[in-house]
Amino acid sequence: MATESVLHPSLIVPIGHVEPVPRRIRGMIGGGVAFDTRRALYVWERQAYPQYSIPVEDLVDGVLHDDNHVEQLGAGPAHRHTLRVGSEVRAGAAWVWGESAPGPLHNTVRFVWGALDAWFEEDEPVFVHPRSPYTRVDALRSTSSVRVELDGVVLAEAPNCVKLFETGLPTRYYLDRAYVDWTRLRHSDTVTRCPYKGTTSGYWSFDGHTASHEDIAWAYDFPTIHANRIAGMTAFYNEHVDLYVDGDLLPRRTSG
């Protein structure tokens, strides 16, 4: 299941756009510090979210070896490099921008996200990809009542909720677990990560009379600080259930 991180069309940033990151950014491999910088850049190689580009001078334990391969990335041509940190070698893990890339990117390197073991903004871990400065996440307590049904079965009914508003995505309604009928749900092994909310602690499916509906609900027991109000609560995909808010049935929509 894909992570939710989609910008509203009105907030799409042009491909190739570059701007400073006002935060300390670090990357780790095998306990070593590949880089540590306060001069990182955001670079949009796709419209939904940026990548970090790191000044080559700010590599710490990381050493780059040129693979003698040039490829056109979203912001321009880049030279592929292998990254070594101590005894750890990550082939093709780094791209050093070429002269035809936007000027601010010269002498900077963009790392393949999954090639590093851990990324940090200041002292907080970052998952999946950098958080876009143009995406906002707000978790607000609400007295709106919520009822969740599927195939005519009530799966949850709560007198209140926490509404999670995330740029470009439908509002999500997080419910206290006491209001969920767990006898109707089956736990799954699915785990997803979100750069804005953290790592899920569980997904649940529903076996109806005519069909099974996989991974329709989820929870974050330990979300990021930005979404701490949803800790331990459960949400259902608006797209896959009948969700009533204050008695009104919400229209189903396809997630971005």
Structural account:
The protein is mainly β. It folds into two domains: 15-126, Domain of unknown function (DUF427) (Metal Binding Protein, Guanine Nucleotide Exchange Factor, Chain A), CATH 2.170.150.40; 137-248, Domain of unknown function (DUF427) (Metal Binding Protein, Guanine Nucleotide Exchange Factor, Chain A). It is 0% helix and 48% strand. The chain has no helices and 24 strands. A seven-stranded antiparallel sheet has the order 1-4-5-9-8-7-6, with no helix packed on it. The protein has a seven-stranded antiparallel sheet with strand order 12-15-16-22-21-20-17, with no helix packed on it. A hairpin with a 4-residue loop joins strand 20 and strand 21. The protein is elongated. The two termini are 12 Å apart. Mean pLDDT is 92; it is low at 1-10.
